[in-house]
Amino acid sequence: MSKRFTLHGFWLSGPTYKVGLMLSLCGEDFAYQSLNLRAGEHKAPAFLAKNRFGQVPVLEDAEAGLALCQSAAILEHLASTLGKFGGAGAADLARAREWMFWDFDRLAGPIYRSRAQRFGIRAFNQPIMEMYWVEGNAALKVLEQALAASDWLAGAHPTIADIDVYGVVAYAPQAGFDLGAYPAISAWMGRMEALPGFIASDGLPKASRP
Ligand SMILES: N[C@@H](CCC(=O)N[C@@H](CS)C(=O)NCC(=O)O)C(=O)O
């Protein structure tokens, strides 16, 4: 039987992981379409018809008749359509959205890009890498303070904010950031990893599956 959700992505992609993690935590089995980014499959007309921005991830929701891009927007769609991880009310959801916007504004850039440099995917010069180091640690400090005061980022339970931000922080060690200096973040990661259905950042399928 064909599945409701098809995730298009790449197993090393952090934004793809965020969506895979959300689906898995929601207990949703999903089809997976692996794209070869090196070969430029994400810029081919067939894929651009699904995502005009030419990026992974894309989530197709057959029931809603939608192909969605931008991981945070996808998380919000899943939270509302599945009724999970959207918070206990409008205030939690509003707070969760703040964290997701902050994530791509302050946290994801330094961490994803430092990791890409280490993996040889991007080549930044030394001053840029130093800037990412300063910015990444500044963002981690903000997160550390929030998580020292509260178990979860938005409300009393895990939400899409935690899933979104976890999908960046999980790569911090690969990017060269020492999470040992952030005890509240480390404890929160332990709570995330104990959630039923959790998958690790290397747990995305490496090949397509129906
Ligand atoms: N803000 C987007 C970022 C997506 C993104 O940067 N995807 C990368 C892979 S991790 C990509 O497709 N890069 C190829 C490109 O931008 O051409 C999201 O959260 O979905």
Question: How would you explain this protein's 3D organization?
Answer:
The chain has helices spanning 14-25, 45-48, 71-82, 90-118, 126-149, 160-169, 172-175, 183-193; strands at 5-9, 31-34, 58-61, 66-69. The protein is an alpha+beta fold. The chain has two domains: 5-82, Glutaredoxin; 90-193, Glutathione S-transferase Yfyf (Class Pi), Chain A, domain 2, CATH 1.20.1050.10. It has a four-stranded mixed sheet with strand order 2-1-3-4, covered by helices on one side. Helix 1 packs parallel to helix 3 and helix 4 runs parallel beside helix 6 (160-169). The longest helix has 29 residues, at 90-118. The N and C termini lie close together (10 Å). The protein binds glutathione. Residues 13-15, 37, 42, 54-57, 70-72, 104 line the site of glutathione (GSH).
